Amino acid sequence: MTNVTPFPAATPGQVGFERPELQRIMDLYGRMVAAGHWRDYAMDMGRDAAIFSAFRRSAERPEYRIEKRPALRNRQGMWALVGEGGAILKRGADLHNVLAPVERKLLRIVED
């Protein structure tokens, strides 16, 4: 009973979306659902990145992934829009600019 076990060292916290960021992403998701294009989403929050994935159908690969990687903040920008094939479509420091290609696609879907 005299053995004292030290408390484990603090591990780095996980990366998550802040409220305004998630509000912007969910607003876009809601409009895509209303247009009948997206049907499901998933969020993954890990040590290095927070990822929002949007699906046309649940059984497929995500059509788009919106990734937040704070480690890249000072280099390429912490936001990335990744396409279905895994190619990075847009990268930047501002979420609004990174979501612009999806916003344009939404305008085309609504106009049809």
UniProtKB/TrEMBL annotation:
Short name of any one Pfam family annotated for the protein: DUF2794
Which InterPro entries does UniProt cross-reference here?
A: DUF2794 (IPR021252)
Q: What is this protein called?
A: DUF2794 domain-containing protein
